[in-house]
Design goal:
It catalyses: uridine(34) in tRNA + AH2 + O2 = 5-hydroxyuridine(34) in tRNA + A + H2O. Its EC number is 1.14.-.-. It is an enzyme of class 1 (oxidoreductase). It comes from Sphingomonas mucosissima. The protein has a five-stranded mixed sheet with strand order 4-1-3-2-5, with helices on one face. The protein has a four-stranded parallel sheet with strand order 6-10-9-7. The chain has a two-stranded antiparallel sheet with strand order 8-11. The chain is 32% helix and 21% strand. The longest helix is centred in the last third of the chain and has 20 residues. It has 310 residues and is α/β, with parallel strands linked by helices. The C terminus is likely disordered. Among the domains are: 88 residues, Alpha-Beta Plaits; 113 residues, 3-Layer(aba) Sandwich (Oxidized Rhodanese, domain 1), CATH 3.40.250. A hairpin with a 2-residue loop joins strand 2 and strand 3.
Length: 310
């Protein structure tokens, strides 16, 4: 059966001199076409995931491609049986992916793109180190075996981790291959490494999702599931919905094994955050979960629920 809703994950590093001026017409066209999701605008470009019916989604994407530097905007699509977002948000940000390092220019200074079909050969080289630029909870549910896990809680922690470990990581002739979910974080991370004086820097074009789409299963090196920032939570190597659900308290993925823990309560807590919740927070989460269940029974959506942002 055809699924009625389509999601589009997208980003573009470009120069927006007045992102605030782009916001009202973008909000207007999204609302006119009943689009849900989040789009981030900053002077460094555009980032987000949106969803709607196919024709409506294409109308908004056509508008995005009229923005400066977005003519060749690349979009990763997926289908969904229901609208995966509860509202539409267009936000102004200092960065479209927060690293906290002013002066980086991924438009001109990013590392070398590596096509998914060429990724295995690069990471097999003995002079190459592979770094997973995602957060610790993402790495925990799937990665490329042998990749270095910085164990960062947020992407803003990555520069400090790299500077602290650079001498152990980088030697003469070392090539650095980095990857992330859809390409945006490793594109910025390569620009950061080049600003730090590292020359041989590469990143997986289109990220893990593009790799899983392009590389045959019998050649794939990926192990586990891949966390995604929408209601699917995670996808399997064949890009089908995975086995994880989202903890509504800490926004982390929860495995089937973790859901068997007495510390897991649907909509309220998981083993990772149970100890951090006081009674008031727990009661508010439980009430929100109850309201979501009532809304679902009525065939409506509870607007208080939302996914986390990348």
């Amino acid at each position: 059966m055809t699924q009625p809703f389509r999601t589009a994950a997208l980003y573009q590093f470009t120069r927006f001199y007045d992102p605030a001026a782009l916001r009202p017409p973008l909000e207007a066209i999204c609302h006119a076409h009943d689009i849900g999701g989040t789009l981030l605008l900053a002077t460094e470009g555009l980032n987000g995931t949106i969803a709607g019916r196919a024709d409506d989604l294409e109308a908004v994407l056509a508008h995005l491609r009229t923005l400066p530097g977005c003519e060749a905007l690349v979009v990763k699509y997926a289908w969904a049986p229901e609208m995966p977002f509860h509202r539409m948000k267009v936000r102004l940000k200092k960065e479209i992916v927060s690293m906290g390092q002013p002066g980086l220019d991924p438009v001109h200074d990013a590392g070398t793109y590596v096509a998914p079909e060429d990724w295995n050969a690069l990471i097999d080289r003995p002079d190459t180190i592979v770094i997973d630029t995602r957060n610790d909870y993402e790495v925990a549910i799937g990665t490329f075996p042998g990749a270095i896990d910085p164990q960062t809680r947020t992407f803003r922690d990555f520069p400090e981790w790299f500077r602290a470990n650079r001498d152990q990581l980088i030697a003469d002739g070392t090539k650095v291959a980095m990857f992330c979910t859809g390409g945006i974080r490793c594109e910025k991370a390569t620009a950061f490494l080049k600003a730090e004086g590292v020359e041989d820097v590469f990143h997986l074009e289109g990220g893990i999702l593009n790799y899983l789409e392009k590389v045959p299963a019998d050649e794939s090196r990926w192990a586990g599931e891949c966390f995604v920032f929408d209601e699917r939570v995670a996808v399997t190597p064949d890009l089908a919905p995975g086995t994880h659900v989202l903890c509504r308290a800490c926004r982390r993925p929860v495995s089937p094994q973790e859901r068997a823990s007495p510390l897991y309560e649907e909509g309220v807590s998981c083993p990772a955050c149970h100890a951090d919740l006081d009674d008031d927070k727990r009661a508010r989460l439980a009430e929100r979960h109850r309201q979501e269940a009532l809304a679902q029974a009525r065939g409506t959506r509870h607007v208080g629920a939302k996914m986390g942002d990348d």
